[in-house]
Amino acid sequence: YAKGTDVCMNGTVDYVEITTRQKPADIINDVNYRWDFNDLNEKDNKNNLTDSDKSTKAYTIKNGIIRISDTTTDFALDKSFWLSDEFDWSIEWRAKLERYSCLFGTKGSNSNFMYLAYNVSAFGNPVRMVDSNGTAHMIGYGNYASEAEEMNTWKVVFSAADKKLTFSFYNETTQTWETVGTKVISDSFNFTFTHMFGRYGDSSVNVCMNGEVDYIEVNTKEIVEP
After folding, report:
1. Which of 8, 44, 120, 170 has the fewest CB atoms within 10 Å of its CB?
2. Pick from 102, 101, 96: which is nearest to 195 by CA?
3. C-alpha–C-alpha distance, residues 155 and 167, integer Å
């Protein structure tokens, strides 16, 4: 037949039978990562850290705490991880900040990062998460303005059922979690983090961690192809 010519049936057909296989649906599993900073390994070696290509390596690890003295130090994750509005997730950390800092970021992107202010004057927000669309989701310090400058424990929790992001502070005296603030996120969002302590611009690190971190723990989901 000539190029551009329609080809259709012209004749008699008794039956047609096709045997094929449908691709199974992707499996979504729960995943937990925890870095205790006895070294650069995740506790189960599921997502270890390596110095990034732009890192100045201005850090020391001692007694289970990583101290970073310059905001040009960050680490590449062995595996990126994903946050979405479609499921529950949480990030918990214990740290003492000395300057504005980044908990997680994405190589080559000015979005997809999690910024931590170290006092009320730095944006007025201890948690500022900028998603893949460039939308900033922020929760202010409230009555906890000075707590980030001391070694303390925090977490952000997202509930997919009510689309609510909750930022909490752990009171070591009462051994209870106290709510710092909440924010309802009505729009869909996604984060895919590739680096710890680093937010990347086009050519250089522009926001990284400065201070001490005891541990970071992430509970999220991962897609596993069958």
Report:
1. 8
2. 102
3. 6
Which tokens is 224 given? 């596993």
Tens-place pLDDT, residues 14-52:
788 876 555 555 657 899 999 999 999 999 999 999 998
Report yes or no: 106 and 113 within 8 Å, Cβ to Cβ: yes
Non-local CB neighbours of 101 within 8 Å, separated by 6+ positions: 71, 95, 115, 116, 118, 197, 207, 208, 209, 210, 211
Phi, psi of 97 (to 5 degrees): -95, 140
Check: pTM over 0.90? Answer yes or no: no
How many Å apart are CA 159 and CA 226, to the nearest integer?
27
Mean pLDDT of 177-186: 95
| Six-digit token string for 48 | 């270890």
Contact 142, 157 (CB under 8 A): no
Are the beta carbons of 131 and 114 closer than 8 angstroms? no
Tokens of 109: 């992107």
